[in-house]
Amino acid sequence: MSLTSVVPNLIDALVTAATTALPDVAVFDGAATEMAEGPMLFVGVDDPEITSWVAASSTQEWALATMTARNEQVTITCAVSTYAGDLAMKTPRDQAFSIAGTVQGLLRDPATFASISGLLFASYEKQTFRQYHDGLGSWCLLTFQLEFKARI
Predict the structure, then answer these.
(1) Phi, psi at residue 46, to the nearest 5°?
(2) Are 150 and 118 in contact (CB under 8 A)?
(3) In Å, what is the CA distance from 14 to each residue of 42, 78, 92, 116, 148?
(4) Is 95:6 a contact under the CB 8 Å cutoff?
(5) For residue 130, how many C-alpha atoms fall within 13 Å in the half-sphere facing its CB?
(6) Alpha carbons 7 and 73: distance in angstroms, whole number
(7) Distance between CA 5 and CA 133 in Å, rounded?
(8) Over the chain (152 residues), what is each successive 10-residue block's mean pLDDT?
(9) Which residue of 17, 52, 94, 103 has the fewest C-beta atoms within 10 A of its own C-beta?
(10) What pTM, to 2 d.p., does this model score?
């Protein structure tokens, strides 16, 4: 584990757990590295349609008067992209929120972050949902933030 930040370890744990929990979803650590059919989950991406992303942010403060430990507050942004080949929004919308619900479940599972010592809490926070039609069908994009606090 990094002594500087838990960010890399959290992203690794999320990608690993989501890949296992979502076998029918293409899970990416950052941007898509290949063309994927079907739903996609991007860990560390706030908008997969642009070329530069805010993957995570964090703040740290000294936890003790002796300056031997720090508290780190971390935000990791994720995005879910879904598609249906018709104009009905219900299927891709339900699929996007179902995938996000699985990620929420991973936050509640102690095994997801068992390798990260000092993790104090994890929560699902702010989300933004967009949907649109084009000549190919219906698209949904759900972005959400995961919040963590750790003692390092």
Answers:
(1) -95, -20
(2) yes
(3) 10, 10, 23, 11, 12
(4) no
(5) 12
(6) 10
(7) 40
(8) 81 97 96 84 87 80 76 94 91 97 96 91 94 90 95 88
(9) 52
(10) 0.89
